Automatic annotation (TrEMBL):
It is found in: Mitochondrion. This is NADH dehydrogenase [ubiquinone] 1 alpha subcomplex assembly factor 3. Signal peptide: none annotated. GO terms for cellular component: mitochondrial inner membrane. The keyword Repressor does not apply. CDD domains: Mth938_2P1-like. It comes from the Eukaryota. Keywords: Mitochondrion. It comes from Artemia franciscana (Brine shrimp). Belongs to the NDUFAF3 family.
Length: 163
């Protein structure tokens, strides 16, 4: 795990994957976006496939609508499964959007973004024809080591300014 400290705001990144020969994978995520195993950082929401990634034009779970998901159903061959990362635990899709997903008769999973990243990686590593539409989570918890490290750096930086 890595932790980046911004002067006003903490940004946490969780490392998920280091494989390069399995196609695109999500290495880590934070509240601003996603780092992929090829070193690319995707700012904001993304649509990721085995070999390509696109920016996804949504801001919050409220913006995930049948229209914002329509591109995933136009693909040939059809996806085995679509993984939808809604952001934080507790964020939910509208009932109309869930009904639309069911009507398309395509497998889908609706998960918090942290779980959606690892689910996408797992399915992709199994060579499944999978895509994910993921919003970065806004609530990324720090573990105790990360909190200590951030506090230590903050104290060290304050001492440097005082000298």
């Amino acid at each position: 795990m890595a932790n980046v400290y911004d002067a006003e705001k903490k940004v946490t990144v969780n490392v998920l994957n280091k494989e390069f020969d399995l196609g695109l994978m999500i290495d880590s995520y934070g509240n601003t976006g996603f780092r992929l195993n090829n070193g690319v950082f995707v700012m904001g929401p993304m649509a990721i496939f085995s070999k390509s990634v696109l920016c996804w034009n949504v801001r919050t779970v409220i913006d995930i609508t049948p229209e914002s998901l329509s591109a995933f159903y136009l693909l040939e061959p059809k996806l085995d499964i679509l993984v939808i990362g809604v952001g934080n635990r507790g964020d939910k899709l509208s009932p109309q959007t869930v009904e639309y997903l069911r009507s398309k008769k395509l497998g889908f999973e609706i998960l918090p973004s942290s779980q959606a990243c690892s689910t996408f990686n797992f399915l992709n590593s199994e060579q499944r024809y999978v895509a994910a539409a993921i919003i970065p989570p806004t609530n990324v918890a720090l573990n105790l080591d990360e909190e200590f490290d951030a506090g230590y750096r903050r104290q060290r930086n304050l001492r440097l300014y005082e000298e």
